[in-house]
Design a protein that fits this description.
This protein is of the alpha/beta class. It is built from twelve helices and 16 strands. This is Sulfatase-like hydrolase/transferase.
């Protein structure tokens, strides 16, 4: 009997350690084309986003966070691989306007590039995608062939939020490989399906890539959500707000299910946006210059937060980070060793191990066509045709109004070699757009369009 009680005491005392070492569930919530200031935690006054705010205010809010591209598909290729997408030639969107035609079986995420899904499968995770894929429509690009056990979504870059009138390969709603009807407003459906996945897989480590197409065009909203914003006079802004309310509600389905299943302390959640706001749809980029498609802050700076109850304290980080860090962070939590992480050649780093006090800065890079940029510390250099064009101190000038290239040539001299070395390491793009080689005057006008 004494032995029994001794054994019981050991087990009880050991339980916290056992649970502390449990492999965490991993959720990445990605939204589409949203404005930087269109959420409560970033300062929106036009509508409320309590569910999204839960992630940000109860976790780490990264105030200097970036994507690796200012447009949808390349940004997604980077974050799902953990590598700069230019390093494997994925530099432009999967749309028309190409300089040369490309076969459908080559028009997507190269098959030799591992995805976060495939990497987590190797560590015993059940993996899923809900929403917009946009990494290739040919069968060998299908999520089920790229490391994801479960897929509810569509293969293309945008679609109606309501049931389709005509079938379309890129826009059909799919349950794995089966084409299914859209039973309700798509944003609500995706959140409910992700919550169902949590419920059905609560006994094993899971990864959810919840990739909404909201608030990308077309502007479609439920009447009930529109009525809640009847005081907003601008029609586009009102519809955008209604779409954001639905987005917030849908994310709430997942957060509530995590809580109901008792998984909050074993679930790491990251929230972000795929590129800067599409201001022509009346998004609010919070004063940042530019929009989606540009290398101004308004095209590449995004809301970004990380939540892990009991593991991460509420805080605000001013260290520059980007979405490449998600794959590194998730793989490390899944059990990859430092040697294995090095072998994967990730471009990111561990979001849970950034030294705020030291600044812990690394250079961040961008390239699209004949334009490129680097941010290192507080400074950002933008080049056209490999020639320095703009230099900004983002600590004192976040809206990029004061070009300091002439006043601080030494900073340009410091940053330019970093950008040139990175650029020289990249292969030629797998496909290019006709407009991607335009002169700097054209690109400037395009970047600054409202």
């Amino acid at each position: 009997m004494r032995f029994f009680y001794s054994l019981l005491l050991v087990l009880l005392l050991g339980c916290p350690l056992l649970f502390a070492g449990k492999t965490p569930n991993l959720i990445f919530i990605l939204i589409d084309d949203a404005g930087y200031d269109d959420f409560g935690f970033t300062g929106c006054q036009d509508w409320e986003t309590p569910q999204i705010d839960r992630i940000a205010t109860q976790g780490v809010r990264f105030d200097h966070a970036y994507v690796t591209a200012s447009i949808c598909a390349p940004s997604r290729a980077g974050l799902i691989s953990g590598r700069y997408q230019q390093s494997f030639g994925f530099e432009e969107n999967l749309t028309g306007g190409l300089t040369e035609p490309i076969a459908p079986e080559q028009f997507g995420l190269p098959r030799n590039v591992p995805t976060l899904g495939s990497l987590l499968q190797k560590k015993g995770y059940v993996t899923s995608v809900f929403g917009k894929w946009h990494l290739g429509e040919h069968d060998h690009f299908h999520p089920n062939n790229r490391g994801f056990d479960h897929f509810v979504g569509f293969l293309g870059g945008h679609r109606s939020f309501w049931p389709l009138e005509k079938p379309n390969q890129a826009f059909n709603l799919m349950n794995n490989r089966e084409v299914v009807k859209t039973p309700e407003y798509l944003t609500d459906h995706l959140g409910k399906e992700a919550a169902r996945f949590v419920r059905n897989n609560k006994e094993k480590p899971f990864f959810i890539y919840l990739a909404y197409n909201a608030v990308h065009s077309p502007l479609h909203a439920r009447d009930e959500d529109l009525k809640a914003l009847s005081s907003i006079e601008d029609k586009k802004r009102r519809v955008l707000g209604a779409m954001t309310i639905a987005l917030d509600r849908s994310i709430g389905y997942v957060l509530d299910e995590i809580k109901q299943q008792g998984l909050e302390e074993n679930t790491l959640i990251v929230f972000s946006n795929d590129n800067g706001g599409a201001t022509y749809l009346k998004t609010n980029n919070g004063g940042f210059r530019g929009r989606k498609g540009s290398l101004w802050e308004g095209g590449i700076r995004v809301p970004y937060s990380l939540h892990w109850k009991g593991k991460v304290k509420p805080s605000v980080s001013n260290v520059p980070v980007n979405t490449l860090d998600i794959s590194y962070t998730f793989c490390k939590q899944a059990g990859y060793s430092e040697d294995e992480l090095q072998a994967l050649k990730f471009s990111g780093r561990d979001l849970l191990n950034i030294d705020e006090a030291k600044g812990d800065t690394v250079p961040l890079f961008w390239r699209r066509g004949n334009t490129s940029a680097v941010r290192y510390g507080d400074w950002k250099l933008i080049c056209f045709n490999n020639q320095p064009k703009f230099l900004f101190n983002l600590k004192s000038d976040q809206t990029e109004q004061l070009n300091l290239l002439k006043q601080h040539p030494e900073k340009a001299t410091e940053l330019e070699p970093l950008l040139r070395t990175w650029d020289a390491s990249l292969p030629e793009p797998l496909w290019t757009k006709k407009y991607s080689k335009r002169n700097d005057q054209f690109m400037m006008r395009y970047w600054d369009q409202k």
